[in-house]
Specification:
13 helices; homodimer; alpha/beta; globular; seven-stranded mixed sheet
Chain lengths: ~325, ~325
Amino acid sequence: MLKIHIFIFLASSLRLFGSLDPLPSWNPGPAKTSIIEFIKATCDESSPNYVPPGKRFATFDQDGTLWVEHPLYTQAVYCLDRILELSIKAPKLSVVEPFKTLIDQSKSENLTFRALEKAINFASSGMSVEQYQYDVIRWLEKAKHPRWEKPYTELIYQPMLEVIQYFQANGYQTYIVTGGGQDFLRAYSEKTYNIPTEKICGTIGETEFKYGKNGKPVLIKKLNILLRDNFSGKPEGIHLMIGQRPHAAFGNSNGDQQMLEYTAGGDGSRLMMLVLHDDAIREYAYGPAENLPNTLVGTFSQALYNEAKQSGWIVISMKKDWNKIFSFD
Amino acid sequence: MLKIHIFIFLASSLRLFGSLDPLPSWNPGPAKTSIIEFIKATCDESSPNYVPPGKRFATFDQDGTLWVEHPLYTQAVYCLDRILELSIKAPKLSVVEPFKTLIDQSKSENLTFRALEKAINFASSGMSVEQYQYDVIRWLEKAKHPRWEKPYTELIYQPMLEVIQYFQANGYQTYIVTGGGQDFLRAYSEKTYNIPTEKICGTIGETEFKYGKNGKPVLIKKLNILLRDNFSGKPEGIHLMIGQRPHAAFGNSNGDQQMLEYTAGGDGSRLMMLVLHDDAIREYAYGPAENLPNTLVGTFSQALYNEAKQSGWIVISMKKDWNKIFSFD
């Protein structure tokens, strides 16, 4: 027992003084080195590019950057489940639009983004924010990914969790900047990523202040979208939530391009990274050179790949740079 | 010198152990007591209403709650100055709407809120966020309040600054929730209130991601408003920015009613406070019992006063509860 205590003490001390590897799931290479060098460049007071703690912001896309997005975004799976559940309770729903098309399309695997967005909005509107998030948590507790047969919240990329922890340990405020719904992610972000609700930037749906049955004020989710947090919407959402350019940004698809460009547009040291899905065996392969058909999940185009290479952004190869993908690997 | 050091050491220790008054500008009374009791109830681990640090949020209205709003909101003064400046540079502007009406109305002291809002939007749209904030800072450095002949950022209520510091020292995240523009307040919030840009919730104008002349991405301010952060918009804005109900909220007018109701709607200990402007000698008097005519500045109606009394909210009398108003008093 004493031996264990001494070991824990030594391990903590080593980690404290930087001797232990802060990114154990990363293989040595330019990607890992660039992260560690960036932290040194911005957090070491003697560095010319030192950033004071209150100005340290790093932004992370979620789907495909922090967790699995294939064969369908988790929020879309939730939404389809909810629509089907509603259509069982109210069979009339399954013959009216957009549900008819949606239910048909979900069977034919030919779902369009537009139909999905409509359904996502519909599935949540009219509920209070609390009801909605309770429903999301309830669903996440029982839903399982078809390939791994594990809860979606366990399909988090362990190397990226280590990056979040490493940034947090160095005084960075870590925000998730997702094209998905802000309220959806907030239901599980703290438990899953150690990122609290106020640091979640997502697609923002309108809410309406109302008095509930007991007179208690609640916020009701509405159909209208205030901000689509994807493509140009990402830097716009970052400005809305943070009001400053991040110093580091992580993404994996064309929807993250503008966030990375906005980050790169600041002075001093900036870190722009893109996760390339090139590991069909341990996860999926759908990078620019690959050909995994999917109509819905964000693509990493050849043009984005070229921009990354020309701009000095770092492309992370899941296959080469990560020695494990999930914590259970 | 040694004596001074010992004194500083003793003073710090006393403050650390709570013997020094954290609210020296507050007179003893129910308002001061309720703030101190609230902090004890939510921050003492043995309290039944203990709130873990990450869940501690307090929200503060700005105009009339943290700084002077008479005879006109500071942002409105900025905006009128900017419109007049523009109309000198481009005389054609002063004969077209809404500027003609606005310039006429500003002379006649009969300005309407609608004309003002239009002008505020116009005055900032088309600029990048950085240009706009640079302009705001430049203006704040030279503009002076007509009564005190001091910069607006010195007309901060010292007792409220002490409340912000006291909450921050007890692990609260302090947000400003203003009907004014989010980008306007962000230009000076950190220096003035020690509240950083990411904790500013205000009226949110749309921005547009664009590539500047040098190819560097910038966000351009647009005319469209995404969220009017006043009345029901305050809890809606709080949800957007924080995603949680605050435990304490401070306001001074009808525009803060729903924020206080939303705060009160949570369980455990909640603190709702309204600043009553009843001190015509040291500041202004325009509470429900007073009669200071003003078409633009938010009113504290008799109905809100009654709701506060019935709901156990605390009404702060500037006259009785504050022994100083400004730091220079």
